[in-house]
Amino acid sequence: MWLAADGQRYNVQQDLMQHELADPQKWDMNLWDLHKDEEIMFTHRFLQWQVADDYGRPTYWTRMGSKTNYAANFFQNMSSCSPIVGFCGKMMPIGDWASEAVGKYQYDPMGTYQLGVGLGGDIPTLHDAPHRAYTIKVDDDGNGALHTMLNTWEGSPSHKDTTVVVETCPSTGCYPPPQPPEGEVDKEFSLWSQPQTWYNTTYDVRNPINELEIDVSQSTLARTIYKIVKQVQWAGQIPSSFDDVWIPKWRKWFSI
Length: 256
Description:
Helix content is about 0%, strand content about 35%. By secondary structure, it is an all-beta fold. The chain folds into 2 domains: about 140 residues, no CATH class; about 80 residues, no CATH class. A 4-stranded antiparallel β-sheet has the order 1-11-3-4, with no helix packed on it. It has a 3-stranded antiparallel β-sheet with strand order 2-10-9, with no helix packed on it. Strands 5-6 form a two-stranded antiparallel ribbon. The chain is elongated. About 15% of the residues are buried.
């Protein structure tokens, strides 16, 4: 707990051992006596944060209540659609943030990170923006990020209690990896009735019936790794009536 002065920035360093270092997945913030026209910003340093995957599909975001909140200094280009990857809404950074009505920059002695070392630099912040809006500044090396959230009076009350939860996939679930190219076609036909036909399909991350999430421990900025959290299952070795099946586009079939 501390008393904050108007117009000042405070850096709080936690003395943690190496094995204790971990990004927060959930935290609570309590503000007392926040008055009209006052704005307080909190910046968290994340060791790993990914605004979007390799294809521009949104990934990390913060949930406060039931609302999905993406970083205010990025926008979803809904006209950008990819039939190969199977989505619309590519996440793109806003180029000139200071030209935005709610955007500005503020210098901080730990405002830029390179290889885990904090250096001086400008942080994208918010002004006259909605309560709990936030910005993301990705590290120069692309690994972590600075998460800066705005807290305002916004009508009432003057005491603000906020629970922030970090989500690593959109609220609708993780995106499946893109399908292999159409040219990758089996040379031989497969029989529906043969168990070997279905090998490697039920636990394949490309199976759209499986539910996925990003494997944070294995992923990097250059490559997103998915893991299966709920796998399609059948009573036998092959699917039967009313079972859900995934037939890869590159496989040739005989339905006997």
